Amino acid sequence: MVSTRGRYALRVMIDLAEQDSDSYIPLKDVAERQEISKKYLEIIVRDLVSGGFITGASGKGGGYKLCRKPEEYPVGEILEQMEGSIAPVSCVGKNSGECPRANSCHTLPMWAEFDQMVHDFFYQRTLRDLLQSGNSVQKREDESQNL
User: Fold this and answer.
1) How far apart are CA 58 and CA 42, in angstroms?
2) Which of 2, 91, 96, 132 has its CA 20 to 30 A from that of 17?
3) Tens of each residue's pLDDT in the chain, 147 residues
4) Cα separation, 79 vs 84, whole angstroms
5) Residues 6 or more apart whose Cβ sits within 8 Å of residue 84
6) Alpha-carbon dihedral sign for residues 58, 75, 10, 114
7) Is 128 helix (H, G, I), strand (E, B) or coil?
8) Domain that holds residue 64
9) Domain count, the chain
C-alpha cells in the first residue's frame, strides 16, 4: 500500500513538472495548489532533495525545481524513495537476501511474479505520463462542459 507520503511526493513532483522548469517554485505555492500543509510538504521535499529528485534554493526567488526532465522520472523510483521497497512481501524485496524457505515455499513464485508486475507497472510510467493523463482528464471535462 502506498502511504500519504508517497502520494503527496508524486503530487509535489507533478506540480513542479507543470511549472517553468528554469525557475524555483516556492513551497507555499505548491502547498496552496495541492491543498497540503506546508509543514508536511517540508518533510516530503527534504526526502526528495536528499534523493536527488529535486533541488532547492533559499532566499528571494527560492523554492524547488526538478533536477531532470519529467520523462526521466519513473514513478517507481519516486515511490521507492518515499516508501522504501514496494515489494508485496519482504522475501522478494531487493535487499531481502535468500529466503530460508525458498526451496520449499509454494507461494514464492507467485509473490515474485506479482512483485515483477508491480515493479513494471510503476517503472514503466513517468511523471510525463502522469502529466499527460491528467491533461487528458481535464480536456475531457472541459469538452463535456462545452456540450
Assistant:
1) 13
2) 2
3) 789 999 999 999 999 999 867 899 999 999 999 999 999 999 999 999 999 999 999 988 899 999 999 999 999 999 999 999 888 888 888 777 787 888 899 999 999 999 999 999 999 999 999 999 866 545 545 555 555
4) 7
5) none
6) negative
7) helix
8) 4-145
9) 1
The answer to whether the CB of 100 falls within 8 A of the CB of 40 is no
CB atoms within 10 A of CB 36: 19
Residue from 17, 12, 14, 51 nearest 28 by CA: 12
Q: What is residue 125's three-state secondary structure?
A: coil
What pLDDT is stored for residue 147 in this prediction? 57
CATH number at residue 17: 1.10.10.10
For residues 85 and 69, give the distance between their C-alpha atoms in angstroms, rounded to a whole number.
Answer: 24
